[in-house]
Amino acid sequence: MANAAGASGAQHADVAVVGAGFAGLYLLHRLRKAGLSAIGLESGNDVGGTWYWNRYPGARCDIQTSDYSYTWDPELEKAWTWSEKYATQPEILRYLGFVADRYDLRRDIRFGTTVSAATWDDGTQRWLLTTSSGAPVSCRYYVMASGCLSAPKPPEIEGFKDFKGEVYFTGRWPHEPVDFTGKRVAVIGTGSSAIQSIPLIAQQAAHLTVFQRTPNFALPAHNGPSPADRVEMLQKDVPAFREQARWSMAGVPLPPATDFSWQLSDAERRERFEKAWAAGDLVVMLTQLWADQAVDVDGNTLVADLLREKVRAVVKDPETAEALTPRDHPFGSKRPCLDTGYYATYNRPNVTLVNLRREPIKSITASGIRTDSRTVDVDAIVFATGFDAMTGAITAVHPISGRGGKSIAEAWEHGPQTYLGLTVAGFPNLFMITGPGSPSVLSNMMVSIEQHVDWITDRLVAMREAGFTTIEATDTAQDGWQRHNADCSMITLHRLANTWYTGANVPGKPQGVMPYTGGVGPYRGICNEVVERGMLGFRLTGPNGAEQCNDGEIVRLQPDVRLVLNLLASMNLPPLESFGAQGARDFLAQFNATRPAGRPVGEVVDGTLPGTDGPLPYRLYRPSTPGPHPIVVYFHGGGWVLGDEQSDDPLCRDLCRRTGMAFVSVGYRHAPEHRFPTAAEDSYAALCWIAGHAAELGGRPGPVSVAGWSAGGNMAAVTCQMARDRGGPQIAGQLLICPVTDCTFDRPSYVDNATGYFLTRSLMYWFWDLYCSPADRTDPRVSPLRGKLAGLPPAMVVTCEFDPLRDEGVAYAEAMAAEGVPVEQLKARGHFHSSFAMVDVVITGVGGRVQMARALRRFAGLPVEETPTRQDNTAQRPIQAAAAGAAD
Ligand code: NA7
User: Fold this and answer.
1) Positive or negative CA dihedral for 411, 413, 418, 422?
2) Is the dihedral angle over the CA atoms 195, 200, 203, 207 positive or is it negative?
3) Mean pLDDT of 360-380
4) CA quadruple 868, 872, 874, 878: dihedral positive or negative?
5) Pocket flag, ligand 1, residue 190 (CB < 6 Å)
6) Same structural domain for residues 644 and 683?
7) Region Disordered: what ranges (predicted)?
8) pLDDT score of 3
9) Shortest CA distance to 668 belongs to which of 683, 688, 646?
10) Residue of 597 and 417 predicted with greater confidence
11) pLDDT of residue 821
12) Span 442-453, pLDDT tens digits
């Protein structure tokens, strides 16, 4: 309990909490149990937060209530039973009231009180809050539990004040019932609030006119009792269910789909879709169809098309159906809605849809709404126009002034900057629950709220025990977190839509994906890691000069690379080299069998070509476009020991699709059976044969390009030198992806990345030993960096930050450039040696592969700006362009 007013007249507390919704109530409970005094400040006259204000007809949660509940007290879980699959607003409000009573939380809350300013005092190291009623508050820690969708957007339509009829806002609905019987009503907006309320308003009103700017995707909720299978799953093992939710991607215990859309037939995809449709569950439709639905434009279009069919099937008037059909954003990139009878409502004679894309609103008049082509007279207007989301409740409600008097609105002038979505550099002892930069609105809010409340309370307790009284994020940590967020946002499709997730719904608001898109479970792991690594990225201070600052960035890897490496680490595999050559080959074959299959190309043909010592296998990938196509001779990776002409299949398919060029992947012979220089000579022989037989292969005669990854990059570099010195064939260009170029192991990347990134230094030693005796290692046919570099074909050299081979790749690129060879470098930040080969696992590699495809097309003299497939999901929209490709 907070102390009574002190001498200054201020009420003193350890912690002040703004908001008495789900977040604020749980926080007050935890703080009290931890022995910290707390005061809650709530502008509403009771608990409830979002659920206190949003009382519009039809308001319900759209995450199943079995998941939309507190999980921190097993007794509470037993004491409350929800009556429906998706509870109504009144029932959720009753639940929050029940919780407030059960834990006696109201006594710590000042209701009907808004904070008018919050100022950090460096002298006392406390926050001073001025409030609309009661004494000011002096607190050590200030926590914004103020919600993500709690600052309604002001009506930004001209003439609003002239309207003489009734005006309602869904986000500030009156407490007494509103009766629309016999009235002409307008609803502006078609987001969740509108889609929930429109069917009910239409039942009452004499006439309802809906003003729609952007049609949204909506699925039927199929509300009713909680589905039996879900109840059974929960009841069978409540703690396991909850734990699974905490480590899931969206905060709901559903493992992600693993099949890719191109592995399923049309009938199989439709069957999955219809099952999800019948489930009436947003998370199911968003995550359970196929693995690429949320990360790839093509995979997403397949779902979106099926959803669009459903609109046409219900809405009878074709023009209205078309106007209601979303076409300008991928499914899930804008918050989709759950509805009950929404589309059917447009078949009622008393409902009209006005398509604002065709006839924008000009103004509101005394009697109604005027568009470009008509005036609609109404008795009431319902603004369902949404919120200044994520940041509004922090920047727009009251000034928050941190160190040096700087306001948070100034600090966020170009968009929210946070560390972990929990704290802000320059604002000591300020916390946000589900702030921007945390999973928040892209998750089941209950899971995210509880995680934040627990994390903050545990930190405050730990600080008390260690004698610290202030905590503040460092600039380095915060900048790193911004970069990580931008990296994450390249994985999903959220950046491709104009939504409140990106700030696009509020005129003049800076744009960028605000919620963390890397998933709830990974995010939880990162927050835990911050603690395990000694509060990495935070400066802690206390009385008598106590100070601790363990500065740094918590995630430097690309988010998907981090997941892959964590997964590999959890498997605790023995080093690859300990299997022996054959054992390692078997392991790799097994590993490759579990990876996602490559995407379809026009044609795949296996064949053999004559090598120096007998036939060598090859695999030809032809694009689906009419040929002949320019040819790329491709050399696979595997340290001269592992792999074959099929082992880089997904990468060859991907580059074939992106370039519209034919790829011939060569099966050169391997060590230790065939040591140096067999691989180099085989590769050169294959190159000569392919160049000489281009037409037979369906290729365009003339210069070919070469490409290769890892040891294959070595082959590509080496064959370019051999072709120059041995009279051909003519090579148009070389794409070297993480190539081996030199036999020394003393460059910094060999030291920095010796272990932990799959390709280890010791594995490279082993490869070298099997392939090449020390006496031969300086031969340019294995160490091309030691060869003559002038006169080589144009090159693109790709290197990855966390790769032992990074520096020798860079050295080769620089050395070639110094000799006058045109060289393009891609230094891929946050990537590891296998990033670009793991095509549909390391999604953040897309930008890099787009760049590689452009280089190959340039080598072949093809137009570069033309992107052959829609998979280039980085090229859709300039937003977040700074993060594109995650390259330097
Ligand atoms: P939303 O989802 O932000 O929806 C607001 C709607 O209002 C949306 O259709 C907007 O169109 C429309 N809008 C906003 N401003 C205007 C103006 N000036 N003129 C015409 N139309 C406008 O808010 P909700 O309250 O429905 O839902 C918020 C979240 O609560 C929801 O996502 C769930 O998470 C629960 P736009 O799409 O911007 O073109």
Assistant:
1) positive
2) negative
3) 97
4) positive
5) yes
6) yes
7) 864-888
8) 56
9) 683
10) 417
11) 98
12) 999 999 999 999
Ligand 1 in contact with 723 (CB < 6 A)? no
Assigned domain for 67 exists: no
**Domain range for 816:** 570-860
Which one, of 149, 860, 724, 825, lies nearest residue 445 by Cα?
149
Q: What is the CA radius of gyration of the chain?
A: 31
Q: What's the gap in Å between 578 CA and the centre of ligand 1?
A: 58
Question: Which residue in 471, 517, 102 sits closest to 294, CA to CA?
Answer: 517
Domain shared by 25 and 130, yes or no: yes
What string of DSSP letters covers 17-71?
A: EE--SHHHHHHHHHHHHTT--EEEE-SSSSS-THHHH---TT-B-SS-TTTSS--
Residues 854 and 810 in one domain: yes
Confirm whether 535 is domain-assigned: yes
The answer, yes or no, to whether any atom of ligand 1 lies below 6 A from the CB of 464, is: no
Predicted confidence (pLDDT) per residue in 16-67, tens digit: 999 999 999 999 999 999 999 999 999 999 999 999 999 999 999 999 999 9
- The CA 356 to ligand 1 mean position distance, Å, reads 13
pLDDT of 884 over the 60 cut: no
How far away, in angstroms, is 383 Cα from ligand 1 center?
Answer: 9
b/e sequence 158-184, b meaning 16+ C-beta within 10 Å: eeeeebebeebbbbebeeeebebeebb
CA atoms within 13 A on the CB side of 89: 20
How many CB atoms lie under 10 A from the CB of residue 686? Answer: 27
- The tally of domains found in the chain comes to 3
Q: Please tell me what DSSP assigns to residue 351.
A: E
Long-range Cβ pairs for the range 394-399 (8 Å, 24+): 394/144, 394/146, 394/432, 394/435, 396/151, 397/114, 397/115, 397/146, 397/151, 398/114, 398/115, 398/116, 398/117, 398/118, 399/117, 399/118
The answer, yes or no, to whether any atom of ligand 1 lies below 6 A from the CB of 506, is no
User: Would you place residue 397 in the very low, low, confident or very high pLDDT band (cuts 50, 70, 90)?
Assistant: confident
pLDDT per residue over 652-661, tens digit each?
A: 999 999 999 9
Residue 826's pLDDT is 98
Residue pair 516/488 in contact by the 8 Å Cβ criterion: yes
Other C-beta atoms within 10 Å of 498: how many? Answer: 17
List the CATH number of the domain containing 371. Answer: 3.50.50.60
| Structure confidence at residue 2 (pLDDT) | 52
pLDDT tens digits, one per residue of 172-228: 999 999 999 999 999 999 999 999 999 999 999 999 999 999 999 999 999 999 999
Ligand 1, atom 3: closest residue by C-alpha: 386
pLDDT exceeds cutoff 60 at 872? no
CB 512 within 8 A of CB 527: no
**What would the pLDDT profile of 791-842 be if each residue is shown by its tens digit?**
999 999 999 999 999 999 999 999 999 999 999 999 999 999 999 999 999 9
Which of 576, 535, 428 is closest to 125 using CA atoms?
A: 428
| Position 100 in a domain | no
